[in-house]
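ok trying this again, last paste got cut off
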Amino acid sequence: MRRFLPALFAAVLIALVGMPAFAADTYQEGKHYEVISPPVPTASTDKIEVVELFWYGCGHCFSFEPLVHDWLKTKPADVEFRQIPAVFAPNWVPHARAFYAAAALGVSDKLHRPLFDAIHVDERKLFTEESLVKFADEVGIPKAEFADAYASFAIDGKIKQAMLATRDYGINGVPSVIVNGKYRVTATLAGGQKDMLKVVNFLVDKERAR
């Protein structure tokens, strides 16, 4: 009997090695993520696109931000990440304009996290054009430049695109993460914000294997 044990152990080991790396951590459609139908075209043609939709006024988005920041440190080279300010209602537009104005000026790092902190840590009411332009000046973005970018025709176009993305991705809340225009991930589906990014990684692997 003993002489068969080594052979049996070897067979089991070979079977385990042959299993997919994610087999023990498989996520299911409809349970951990949703399929977007029809898929939304991606901005990137040669990389796997991961999009986060958020709102500066959202406390859940504020708590998700550092998790995204850490995830980006290990983001694979074949993944393209971008953020889109969701626009569900007119009162979400000022924050979306502020996000795109900072991006247009190349100063997103000066505005993005500081604005989150000002609203959710310092409890400042920064929800209007006037207050946002003033805040931009406080964090070192020239007031006149920011105001011009904020009100520009180019930003009007960005806002329309953000509205369409909010609709086409079929989200009903933020933060939501979209993988390659095909899959929608939320904290409710994934089981928490940390698990959202685990599901995102799973879906990225799924797309890479296609």
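PB: full thing came through this time. The domain at 25-208 is CATH 3.40.30.10 (Glutaredoxin).
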